[in-house]
């Protein structure tokens, strides 16, 4: 795997506590002077983790429905690093009987972003649990989603690579509306068949549905936030709050833009190629 040798490693061990501590300092700073971002503060610089050799610390960006979860999860299996999706952490929490459940349900079902404080706390807990199991490295999906989250992350560790997945908006909406999830195993499927003709210089795009296997087919549900109205709101919020994160990483030379050429069979090998991962590995991972 050619790409791996280039990737520096950071200990996840203290990253979780660093993120929470850095966040507390951000809060303190913002109470004192809103104009000073946390990562510039003297205190939070002291918390910064130095990279070690070998780990993968990647981030997946992209609009709702683009397939961040699908490709991040495939790469996580391929590379043997955990896939951490903050959307999954939020859904676990809102389905629990915890104190945040009803507040989260309301926010998510309106297509709004959860507060940075809650997201950082959920992410820190997930990283701590991973640390206890000896995990190292990560592929983050759905985080960072605001410039503030990106600054906090940048202040505590080195992200090696940020993959920005892109797809035409008509396809995004159709994919969200067609998404189905198995309540038992949590896998995502899609009943939509996307066939968008090329126009005004934009290439057409064709994506087959992704049918559920017989064991999942009777247990499919739709996410409550995958309605047309809420998806449109999620897209609006993405353009307003999350798209600036693309520029944040572009200006740091970390952003890899990837236009999805079609469905998984077409896109997966091309993504591996773009990531400079070897053909041999490609065949075994695609199996
Ligand atoms: N980093 C984050 N910051 C704030 N809210 C988040 C974050 N990650 C997930 N969420 C919340 O969880 C919801 C679902 O997230 P996700 O599954 O990643 O959705 P999407 O399909 O829109 O990318 C979001 O609409 C938002 O309410």
Automatic annotation (TrEMBL):
Subunit-structure text: Monomer.
Cross-referenced Gene3D superfamilies: P-loop containing nucleotide triphosphate hydrolases
SUPFAM superfamilies given in the database record: P-loop containing nucleoside triphosphate hydrolases
Keyword match Kinase: yes
Single GO MF descriptor: ATP binding
Cited InterPro entries: Adenyl_kin_sub, Adenylat/UMP-CMP_kin, Adenylat_kinase_CS, P-loop_NTPase
Superkingdom of origin: Eukaryota
Similarity comment: family membership: Belongs to the adenylate kinase family.
Protein name: adenylate kinase
Entry's EC annotation: 2.7.4.3
Catalyzed reaction equations: AMP + ATP = 2 ADP
Naturally occurring in which organism (per UniProt): Populus tomentosa (Chinese white poplar)
Keywords: Kinase, Nucleotide-binding, Transferase
The keyword Aminoacyl-tRNA synthetase appears for this protein: no
CDD domains: ADK
EC class: transferase
């Amino acid at each position: 795997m050619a790409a791996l040798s280039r990737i520096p490693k950071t200990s996840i061990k203290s990253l979780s506590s660093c993120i929470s501590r850095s966040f507390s300092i951000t809060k303190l700073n913002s109470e004192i002077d809103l104009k000073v971002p946390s990562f510039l503060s003297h205190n939070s610089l002291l918390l910064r983790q130095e990279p070690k050799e070998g780990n993968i610390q990647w981030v997946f960006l992209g609009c709702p429905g683009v397939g961040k979860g699908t490709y991040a999860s495939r790469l996580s299996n391929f590379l043997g690093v955990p896939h951490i999706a903050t959307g999954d952490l939020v859904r676990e929490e809102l389905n629990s009987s915890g104190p945040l459940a009803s507040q989260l349900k309301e926010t998510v079902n309106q297509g709004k972003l959860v507060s940075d404080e809650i997201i950082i706390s959920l992410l820190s807990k997930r990283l701590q649990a991973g640390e206890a199991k000896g995990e190292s490295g990560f592929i983050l999906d759905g985080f960072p989603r605001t410039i503030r989250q990106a600054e906090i992350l940048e202040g505590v560790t080195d992200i090696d690579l940020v993959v920005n997945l892109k797809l035409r908006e008509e396809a995004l909406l159709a994919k969200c509306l067609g998404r189905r999830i198995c309540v038992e195993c949590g896998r995502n499927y899609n009943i939509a068949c996307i066939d968008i003709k090329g126009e005004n210089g934009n290439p057409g795009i064709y994506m087959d549905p992704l049918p559920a296997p017989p064991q999942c087919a009777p247990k499919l549900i739709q996410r409550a936030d995958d309605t047309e109205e809420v998806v449109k709101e999620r897209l609006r919020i993405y353009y307003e709050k999350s798209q600036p994160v693309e520029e944040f990483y572009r200006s740091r030379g970390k952003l890899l833009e990837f236009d999805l050429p079609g469905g998984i069979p077409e896109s997966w090998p091309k993504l591996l190629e773009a990531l400079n991962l070897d053909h041999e590995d490609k065949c075994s991972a695609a199996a």
